[in-house]
Amino acid sequence: NSYLIATGDPLALTYNDKSVLESYHVAEAFKLVQHDKFNLFQAMDAKHHRELRALVVRAVLATDMADHFAQVTELVSTAPKPVTNKMHRR
Fold first, then answer.
1. For position 78, what pLDDT does the model report?
2. How many CB atoms lie within 10 A of CB 23?
3. pLDDT band per the 50, 70, 90 thresholds, residue 33
4. What's the distance, CA 8 to chain centroid?
5. For residues 8 and 88, which has the higher predicted lDDT (pLDDT)?
6. Cβ-based neighbour number of residue 74 at 10 Å
7. What is the per-residue pLDDT across 38-83, written as a single tens digit (0 to 9) for each?
8. Angle at CA 55, nearest 5°, toward 42 and 26?
9. Which residues have CB under 8 Å from 36's CB, separation 6+?
10. Phi/psi of residue 87, nearest 5 degrees
């Protein structure tokens, strides 16, 4: 991503320098499933298709290592803290 952004690659321009390769890959995947031969979502209603598409997009964009540590920090800070029972400690 950083190389594509630094060199002004057309993909970086298309995806506004944000998760360039991840955005490209998820866009290409959804272009493929537009063809009947590859459409895994044919039987889904529009609502479920939108929900699944949003989930897939979020999952793929989450693989961008530029955002990884911020996402982990957010996850850790929002995760419930374990409850400890002092009576069971030795």
1. 86
2. 20
3. very high
4. 23
5. 8
6. 11
7. 998 888 999 999 999 999 999 999 899 888 788 788 888 888 888 7
8. 75
9. 42
10. -70, -25
Contact by Cβ (8 Å): 19, 64: yes
**Is the separation of the CB atoms in 56 and 43 below 8 Å?**
no
d(CA 41, CA 30): 10
The single-letter code of the amino acid at 90 is: R
HEC sequence for 34-80: CCHHHCCCCCCCHHHHHHHHHHHHHHHHCCCHHHHHHHHHHHHHHCC
Give this prediction's pTM. Answer: 0.72
Q: Name the token pair of 79.
A: 């995760």
Q: Which distant-in-sequence residues (6+ apart) come within 8 Å of 58 by Cβ?
A: none
Residues, the chain, total?
Answer: 90
**Stretch 25-33: mean pLDDT:** 95
Angle between helix 46-61 and helix 20-32 axes, rounded to 10 deg: 150
